[in-house]
Automatic annotation (TrEMBL):
An annotated Gene Ontology molecular function: 6-phospho-beta-glucosidase activity
Species this protein is from: Celerinatantimonas yamalensis
Keyword Hydrolase assigned: yes
Enzyme Commission number: 3.2.1.86
Active-site residues, as the UniProt record annotates them: E362 (nucleophile)
Lineage: Bacteria, Pseudomonadati, Pseudomonadota, Gammaproteobacteria, Celerinatantimonadaceae
NCBIfam families listed in its UniProt record: PRK09852.1
Top-level lineage group: Bacteria
Entry similarity comment: Belongs to the glycosyl hydrolase 1 family.
Protein name, as recorded: 6-phospho-beta-glucosidase
UniProtKB keywords: Glycosidase, Hydrolase
Amino acid sequence: MSFRFPDSFLWGGAIAANQVEGSHIADGKGLSTSDVCPFGVFGQIVKRTNGDFNIKDIAIDFYHRYPEDIALMNEMGFSCFRLSIAWTRIFPNGDDEQPNEAGLAYYDKLFDELAQYDITPLVTLSHYEMPFNLADKYQGWASREVIGFFEKYARVAFARFGDRVKHWLTFNEINVTLHEPFTGAGLPRDCTEQMRYQAIHHQLVASAKAVKACHELIPDGKIGNMMLGALIYPLTSNPGDVLKAQVQNHDWLFFGDVQARGYYPSYMHRKFAQLGVSLDITDDDRQALKETVDFISFSYYMSGCASADPKEQEKAKGNMLEMIANPYLEESEWGWQIDPQGLRILLNMLWDRYQKPLFVVENGLGAKDQLNEQGVVEDDYRINYLNAHLYQVGEAIQDGVAVMGYTSWGPIDLVSASTAQMSKRYGFIYVDRDDEGNGSLARTPKKSFYWYKKIIASNGEQLSAPKPD
């Protein structure tokens, strides 16, 4: 690729606390909603007892091994590292009067370590977890009280870490509550649409209040939202399919519309009427929502199709998304369709819609990596996947899209959110641990580690053009 990415472009990787840290009750940490889902986001919610096993309780032990892992990321040339704070390390129950100093001290050390290498932290306040006490006692985000608990947590984080952390995100994949209400909002899985959208409204207000707090407490900081980028194409050129795709894209774009524009889009008023949803929106809420994000961030793993034909709708599949398979695309081992050009399409769509800087904060390939006889993972499939997607990011930048950076998911093997497996590996760094929790936790760079290092060093210039069909 003859094109070089902008000098300001941030290169790196992304993780979530609940998938890497382990030490799930160490140093005063409370139980999170992730801790009671040992089988992944769709799995059974389990009441924890002493001595039971959850692979996330240790995960990859990033809690203790972060200096080694950050050193490896520095070796790759990372200029940015997206991570999350575990809310329950700071407020173990969510409604505590005072924050947990041991949790604050842990992240102090982590951010100091990143500063040693001049790696920019991009920090998510809540990534697929919240204090379980808030879900159990308050029905999660269905309660308006949780807005205040989150704002208090956000202000403590900004005040403590704002001298070292200038880039923030509020909620990871905020639109996931549409598909998995317990993971997204601490709601009962059989919640009504009224409860679901009222909880979403409370999250949107809380996000806006966190944006305002960030602007007040970190004047030189930037804070964005984070959406699950669920790009939907019409299955055919039939106008019914085109309209169906537009409606399904609106289902997730509505979150960005509120967070970037400061009010509910008109199409949602029709949807609420159709669903029989009547939101409790106060004047304070309306005022709070006017505080909009500085940039738009999103994950992108796959696209899908929509059809007005009921027979086609029966074929819908995906991870958490009801998507119809695209007949022109290949699939990963887990059935996720691979669509690099979709990333360019999505970047252009979001840029045209919002005219705010964009950040690709998750993109990666889960695969069953194997060490060969030489102790190396020859993950050319991952290199090909990431090269193809990054090439399209470069194309979007040349289209005129303002892209801040790219953090792959996840730079080191971690526990999968959807399946709670170690065998579904994403990283440039292999971690010796299996689905039963066996292994030394030793770190080994994969072939893709050295490839990504080369791409970063060349600022994207070493990316390969896609082969013609």
